[in-house]
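ESCALATION

Customer reports they have been waiting on this structure for their group meeting. Please prioritize. Original submission:
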Amino acid sequence: MNMDNPGRKSALREKIRTVLKKLPAEKRQEDSEKLCAYLKQQAFFQNARAILFFASLPEEPDLWPLLNDTLAGKKLVALPCFDADYQAYRPRRVTDVHVEILSGKFGIREPATTCVEIPLKDLDLVLVPGVAFDLSGHRLGRGKGFYDRLLENFAGKKIGIAYDEQLVDAVPEEKNDVRMDFVITPTRCVKCDR
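Update from on-call: job pushed to the front of the queue and completed.
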C-alpha cells in the first residue's frame, strides 16, 4: 500500500511512540543527563547568548536541569508560551522557574504571560523537541505544526533534541516542514546535511 506523507508520518509517530514507551524511566533519566552534558559541550551552545529551551513531555529528553544551570549563567533563557489569540507559540524570557512557570494550554510547562516576549531575531539558538529526526535535519513533530510555524523565519541555529531511539533513516517531508541544523542525542551530535 502506498501511503501519502501524512499517512507515513502518522505511522512513523506510532512506531516511535511505541519504542519510547518501552524505555525504562532509569534509562530516560540517564540518557537525559548524558544529552544535557553533551549539549553543554557544543560550541554553538557555549557561544549562544540567547536560547529558547522547551519544557519536555514525559517521553522526551528532560532539559530542565540544563535550563536551570543556564539560568544561573549569563545567557538569556526563554521558553515557548502559547498565544491563544494567534493559536501559536511565542518565546518568553524566563528568569525564575519557581515563580514564572505555569501549566499551559496542552498541560506543558510554559512561562506566565507576564514574562517578557522575546523576538525570534534576538535568539541565537532554539532547542526543538520532536517525535523523530533524520540525519538530513527533517523533523517529525506531533502533527499540529506549532514548531514549524514558530521557526519558519528563524535565522539562528535549530537543534533537534532526541534520544538515540528517535533517529530514523528518513522522515517524510512536506513543504512547510522546518529542517534542523543539528540533532543532538545522548551519544552524538549530527550536523545535518542540507
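Sent to customer with the following note: Helices lie at 5-21, 25-41, 43-47, 64-72, 97-100, 146-151.
Escalation resolved.
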